[in-house]
Specification:
Elements: E1 2-6, E2 9-12, H1 20-33, E3 50-55, E4 58-62, E5 65-69, H2 84-96, E6 106-113, E7 118-121, E8 133-139, E9 142-146, E10 156-160, E11 165-168, E12 177-179, E13 193-200
Antiparallel strand pairs: 1-2, 2-11, 3-6, 4-5, 6-13, 7-12, 8-11, 8-13, 9-10, 9-12
The structure holds N-(carboxycarbonyl)-S-(naphthalen-2-ylmethyl)-L-cysteine (MD3) and fe (iii) ion.
């Protein structure tokens, strides 16, 4: 099921629902090597979302700033690789969204406990904005907000649930977006949290 959310943004509802439990097991394997951690923003705030990465690079933030790093600052080791199933599903989703040459080399993994949120922001730490970002959601539902190229533009809201995939490219690539605080609930596959994966290509 394919819906156009905004110019350049396509939601593929339940695109990875059949693979959800396998993907969550692959996330658990990543977390054994590179655990979830609450990173600090350059302004000194602890993020409510816990994060880790797999891939050639991972997105990190600390008092020095936001950046991509080829090693996990917590372990000093490279990030675990992107499992081939995950890679293939991200590439297939991008293709459905109209992006045929996507070779993601970063997968940022976000874990939202109940009450965790992500404030409105733009993703602009990547060099090349012609590549899309592919996101996959699992576990508890969350309200996703997305607006325009200015923080003050009006936002639309949409609910993201287990297995939903969104491809963000073209005119939507630099849109402001965020996640409202996750409401209390229980999901059989994640217990009491929401997991989001974002695939990026940063070369
Ligand atoms: C729209 N993550 O990791 S995914 C992020 O659910 C992030 O964890 C949210 O925003 C989450 O940066 C939202 C959907 C998403 C991801 C990237 C985008 C939407 C986007 C980039 C541009 C426009
Ligand atoms: Fe983002």
């Amino acid at each position: 099921v394919r819906e156009n959310l905004a110019p350049g943004a396509v939601i593929l509802r339940h695109f990875v629902l059949p693979q959800a439990r396998t993907i969550l097991a692959q996330v658990a394997a990543v977390v054994k090597c590179s655990p979830f951690r609450h990173m600090t923003t350059p302004g000194g705030y602890g993020m409510s979302v816990a994060m880790t990465n797999c891939g050639d690079y991972g997105w990190v933030t600390d008092r020095q700033g936001y950046r991509y790093s080829d090693e996990d600052p917590l372990t000093g080791k490279p990030w675990p690789p992107i499992a081939s199933l995950l890679y293939q599903l991200a590439v297939a989703a991008a293709e459905q969204g109209g992006f045929s040459d996507f070779q993601p080399n970063v997968c940022l993994i976000n874990r939202y406990a109940i009450g965790a949120k992500m404030s409105l922001h733009q993703d602009k730490d990547e060099k090349n904005f012609t590549y899309p970002i592919v996101s996959m959601s699992f576990g508890l539902p969350a309200v996703f907000q997305f607006g325009g190229l200015s923080r003050s533009d009006t936002v639309q809201k949409c609910l993201l649930t287990q297995g939903d995939v969104v491809v963000w490219g073209g005119a939507s690539r630099l849109a402001y977006h965020g996640i409202l605080p996750v409401k209390a609930g229980h999901h059989p596959d994640t217990e009491d949290c929401r997991i989001n994966l974002t695939f990026r290509q940063i070369d």
